[in-house]
């Protein structure tokens, strides 16, 4: 897909997973990054202070583009909200016209499809992998998230991975989740001790209609900012865990259930990440699709 007519290094601004005023996660996006060095891309992320996406032509058969992602402190293998937003922008510019696309990232190939009735992009994530967090480290995670948390909450700490390891910590209520006051200076060392890229406390409540209401917050290990407004990869890991433990319904291949994970409300950036199951040939869950509302934004 030819982007030669796009000026190299041109930056556009979008917000992804928007669910209200000032909501969503901002993405500075370079629509033609061919010729940019890693240091150039790092400079873009540092200048804007957000995860930034960079689009490259692909010479690989069956792959439409190559995406790279940088946060202010380092390069990332994969970024869910930046992938959704970048594909949405490419669609808006007329550079993506087919029903589906395949993207090469450092974490592997991401499949995508265009939801024309809703004007949204859905991208794939693999099936979640879970690993228990040792009780001692679980206690430490809870103490860092909020020193007032009872230490017995370590039993609800779990590492979950789709593209990157996230540490899931169940809170009793959404109000308790929103009230967390983590020791931000200890997040990086705590995450490093359990091989995690971020702490993802969450809560599940029952809505008025009887369906689950899921909310979460993300405190990244070392991205260069203290909290994320919306984190697609962490939401995918949480969705997988909740599905395995029957905390949410996943539906069937004929009638998949869409679950929305709210994030960013405690920091004044209301966001919502939609997820639904990807099913295999025999009806088994093989991963998930994730999506959300995208808007143009000033940087």
UniProtKB/TrEMBL annotation:
Signal peptide: none annotated. This is Putative isomerase YddE. GO terms for cellular component: cytoplasm. Keywords: Isomerase. It comes from Variovorax paradoxus. Pfam families: PhzC-PhzF (PF02567). Its EC number is 5.1.-.-. Belongs to the PhzF family. The active site is at residue 51.
């Amino acid at each position: 897909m030819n982007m030669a007519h796009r000026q190299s290094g041109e930056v556009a601004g979008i917000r992804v997973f928007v669910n209200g005023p000032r909501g969503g996660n901002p993405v500075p996006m370079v629509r033609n990054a061919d010729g940019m060095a890693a240091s150039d891309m790092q400079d873009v992320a540092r200048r804007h202070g957000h995860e930034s996406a960079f689009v490259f032509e692909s010479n690989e058969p069956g792959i439409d583009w190559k995406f790279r992602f940088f946060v202010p402190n380092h390069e990332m293998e994969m970024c869910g909200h930046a992938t959704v937003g970048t594909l949405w922008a490419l669609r808006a510019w007329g550079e993506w016209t087919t029903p589906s696309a395949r993207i090469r990232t450092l974490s592997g190939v991401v499949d995508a499809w265009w939801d024309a009735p809703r004007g949204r992009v859905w991208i794939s994530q693999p099936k979640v992998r879970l690993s228990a967090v040792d009780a001692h480290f679980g206690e430490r995670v809870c103490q860092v998230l909020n020193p007032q948390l009872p230490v017995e909450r370590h039993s609800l700490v779990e590492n979950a991975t789709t593209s990157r390891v996230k540490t899931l910590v169940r809170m009793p209520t959404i109000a308790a989740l929103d009230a967390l006051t983590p020791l931000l200076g200890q997040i990086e060392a705590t995450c490093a001790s359990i091989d995690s890229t971020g702490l993802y406390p969450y809560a599940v409540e029952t809505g008025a209609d009887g369906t689950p209401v899921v909310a979460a917050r993300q405190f990244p290990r070392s991205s260069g900012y203290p909290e994320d407004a919306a984190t697609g990869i962490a939401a995918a890991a949480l969705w997988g865990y909740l599905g395995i433990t029957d905390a949410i319904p996943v539906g069937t291949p004929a009638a998949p259930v869409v679950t929305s994970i709210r994030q960013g409300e405690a920091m004044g950036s209301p966001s919502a990440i939609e997820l639904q199951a990807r099913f295999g040939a025999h009806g088994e869950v093989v991963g998930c699709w994730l999506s959300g509302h995208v808007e143009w934004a000033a940087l």
